[in-house]
């Protein structure tokens, strides 16, 4: 399993080239080891030699492990740039970027919901006092709502002023159109830049006391990440940073200088639906999920949390610096919100 | 001790088998991969750690092949 790999705006080609060269190096290594095992000969064909058999098995196992690492690299390469998916063998996760044309077709052939821009009511469902400030990406990923609530807002008051952190849930794929966080809101969003879930999140932010001036950090999973990027790009809020997890990459092209950190599993089809990392502002981290899951399971926020932890463990100076800059120094209060039309 | 050194020297001086040559080439490819410049940062460091582990295991296998002759 390879460590998390990041690409940033303006340097993605650089990292991509570095990964392509390493993929080729690993391929050459595997071919050489396969030739070596052929030279040694399959154990047991003639007189059994336990030492030779052990060598043969060790070399074979090592060749397989290196080939698996190469597959992991190729999965990241394909997710960074869909064009590269055709270059390399189809590795784990690599087919997803090929879904991009399909998603474009669906988006362009789906009528815009007339309700996309209306005011979406949200109800407070729970409050909790004395909430510690999140320290890092992993802490933030754990605060994204996963139940019936769609938005959580943490408020931190100090002598220096008030700061907010908002955590936005992803698409509820089991919900119908009555729920603003249903799958159709993604299409509304991609077509018009508006959605009922975006409207609902703005309602919750206003209800929580967030104004145009109060510093705000946004963390969102899937559709929640799209909402976060849209809020940052709207200019209606003072957004200090956006963290997205399993969100379509590169849908909103202009981040207006707001630092953005994205986390994507190559095995997750959703980040690839928006395009690729070259269009995503900020830094995108590619992590293979552990345990290895594919498709819908790779998209679950629960499976992204260990990946966020793996990124934190790398102790990347740029990420650490951003997290230090936006860290609230006091305990706060948390409020959960649910769309009242979600049934 | 002197006997062990003498044995090791004898093994190291013997011509390598084709299988060992191939494994040594694989070690060289990984070494080349690690020496490539450019990409920096904690992800690169962690990645190089992974390559280190592979190289170490290959070196052990290469020595085993050499001792077999």
Question: Can you offer a commentary on this structure?
Answer:
The complex is a heterodimer of chains A (343) and B (69). By secondary structure, chain A is an alpha/beta fold. Helices cover 43% and strands 18% of the residues of chain A. Chain A has twelve helices and nine strands. Chain A has helices at 12-40, 50-80, 83-87, 100-108, 137-142, 184-192, 196-208, 223-234, 269-273, 296-299, 301-314, 317-325, and strands at 5-8, 122-131, 151-158, 161-168, 215-221, 238-245, 260-264, 283-286, 332-339. In chain A, strands 1-8-7-6-5-4-3-9-2 form a nine-stranded mixed β-sheet, sandwiched between helices. The longest helix of chain A is centred in the first third of the chain and has 31 residues, at 50-80. Chain A starts with a strand and ends with a strand. By secondary structure, chain B is mainly α. In chain B, helix 2 packs antiparallel against helix 3 (42-68). Chain B is elongated, with a radius of gyration of 15 Å. The model of chain B has no long low-confidence stretch (mean pLDDT 83). Chains A and B meet through helix 1 and helix 2 of A and helix 2 and helix 3 of B.
H/E topology pattern of chain B: HHH
Seen as an oligomer or otherwise, the chain set is heterodimer
Looking at the structure, what is the overall shape of chain B? elongated
- Which chain pair has the greatest contact? A-B, 35 and 29 residues
Question: What can be said about the biggest beta sheet of chain B?
Answer: none
Q: How large is the radius of gyration of chain A?
A: 23 Å
Quick take:
The complex is a heterodimer of chains A (343) and B (69). By secondary structure, chain A is α/β, with parallel strands linked by helices.
Feature tags:
heterodimer, A: 343 residues, alpha/beta, nine-stranded mixed beta sheet, 12 helices, elongated, B: 69 residues, mainly alpha, 83% helix
